[in-house]
Amino acid sequence: MRFMMLMIPKGYESVAPGTLPDAKAIEVMMRYNETLQKAGVLLTLDGLHPPSMGARVSFSGGKPTVTDGPFAEAKEVLGGYWMIQVRSKEEAIEWASRCPASDNEMIEIRQVQEFADFPPDVQKAAAGFVEMQTQNGQYQGA
User: Fold this and answer.
1) Residue 99 has pLDDT above 60, yes or no
2) How many domains are there within the chain?
3) Which ranges of the sequence are coiled-coil (predicted)?
4) Positive or negative CA dihedral for 8, 11, 74, 50?
């Protein structure tokens, strides 16, 4: 089973553009990332720039509207993510619990929808999806 572990740092929604974590924080997080890698559960990971450097596209009435960050209404935003391959949600929770996160950080765990999870009519509607994942070098789920 693939799970995303989504890092949600409190206060990140109002961080200035270009703000980066300090080297000490990265060093500690890299040791955790190496543990995930050595255990063979890490598929990919990335950190995200602050929302003040991003944009949102909404579709009210079917028409796209772009809003540049920061997003004053946001209460929680993503700071980064890990994609892991584990046997269960409990194992994903165990890995997330080992993260050297600070008091102002939280990790949300979400299971990835696998192609095989869908009924035949949905799989038919998504014809070509598995090939897209394979062509992009993305892990192909069970």
Assistant:
1) yes
2) 2
3) none
4) negative
